[in-house]
Amino acid sequence: MNSPNPTGWKARLAALVVRWKSRQWRESSRQLTFPIPGERVHRVLAVLPGQLENLDRATAFVYRLRQVYPEWKIDLFDPDKIPEQETGFTGLPKKPFLDQLRQEGYELVINLSAGGDLYRNYLVLASGAPYRLALFTDADPFYNITCLVGQDGVDYEKLLGAIQQLFLTSSVQVAN
Q1: pLDDT at 66
Q2: How many domains does the chain have?
């Protein structure tokens, strides 16, 4: 399997490709207004963290998210498991893989990694989701929602609270 985070000249080439593609995929100055009813979201992609120490807690977070939003179809995605035949020589996924990801129709993508990983950022932006949530600050231009959820690692309970403030459950009404 290709390394999802190439090194050397491949990393530099991958970074150039990501920058070029991100300009194509970004929505031009789309303003988001929150809170919104959670019912507007149907498909969610949770991108698993690359850090093994966060994997169990991230999976538990997704379980809790499913309890709070039972109407959401939440898919787990581990970018490190993309088959080699689906990636190019830079380690980035090929166009057919990215097209399939976009066709899934995700409205919300949550990157559960604690830091800015160019590979994961690229996949999140490539998803075409209108709501893209990151857990760190240096995520632009890939994300349009940023949550700072803990200084000593990711606090997934705080993340769940933040999501509940952004995407209201049916028991909470949106104020006009």
Answers
A1: 97
A2: 1
Distance CA 139, CA 163 (A): 18
Has residue 134 been placed in a domain? yes
Calculate the alpha carbon distances from 85 to 1, 78, 133 in Å. 8, 16, 28
Sign of CA dihedral 13, 16, 20, 21: positive
CATH of the domain at 69: 3.40.50.2000
Query: How many C-beta atoms lie closer than 10 Å to residue 49's C-beta?
Result: 23
In 10 A of CB 164, how many CB atoms?
16
Separation CA 30–CA 117 (nearest Å): 24
pTM (2 d.p.): 0.83
User: Does 105 reside within a domain?
Assistant: yes
Domain holding 145, by residue range, is: 8-23+42-168
Residue 94 or residue 154, greater confidence? 94
Residue 30 included in any domain: no
